[in-house]
Amino acid sequence: MPVNLLxxxxxxxxxxxxxxxxxxGIDVRANFTKALNSGSMSDIDLLVLAGDLAxxxxxxxxxxxxxxQIKDLKVPVCIIPGNHDDLSVMAKFFxxxxxxxxxxxxxxxDFMGHPLFFLDSACGTVSEDxxxxxxxxxxKEPGEVFLFMHHPPCFxxxxxxxxxxxxxxxxxxxxxxxxxxxxxxxxxxxxxSHFEVAMGRQKIHVVPSTQMQIGANTPHFTLKSSAPExxxxxxxxxxxETAVYLN
Length: 247
Ligand SMILES: [Fe+2]
Description:
By secondary structure, the protein is α/β, with parallel strands linked by helices. Helices cover 22% and strands 28% of the residues. The strands form four sheets. The chain has a six-stranded mixed beta sheet. It has a five-stranded mixed beta sheet with strand order 3-2-1-14-15, covered by helices on one side. It has a two-stranded antiparallel sheet with strand order 4-5. The structure holds fe (ii) ion (FE2). Fe (ii) ion binds next to loops.
């Protein structure tokens, strides 16, 4: 079967607030829409919102705003929750029908010949149920599969995020992912920084944030930039190319 070129727009860590007030002095709504409406996104086939849509704790106004912004998009949108999201609130604003299993949002989306898998790491871990499901589903596929989850499954060389907020059960997750031979690329967010990290034979693409970028070289929080950044990934036959854009 021919493999189609698939162009994915990836937006992560929007941190939209309940209302239009600035979030930590940043116009996060304008930052998000700059990414969404940028020329780099004009010919994507699919949009992925990679978690932390809401700023603190699943603010309904954040989801209402994001839902309004994406409602007229001509392409499908895949959403995964982050640690600042509340799945029960998200489900009121986005179509997550059939995607929530035991209070976790995980699913596959087969699109343009590519099996795309989405996991829920919002609580800081990936549950055993999800890992077994991923292993079983990926085993059904003859070709490459792609994974999306909010937390990177490995350390990325970010001194602050690695130390304070990395995925808690990363050893368990890594062990399962390593046993999935056709899993080649993982797309994540959460780190408010762009990284491309090799994890064994798998490549981890860490999508930066539209809210702000966090400095990677100090063990404490430092603001690197309050300009939005986002990623566009092109997936073809045996290749993935990513580009990061900023406003
Ligand atoms: Fe996060």
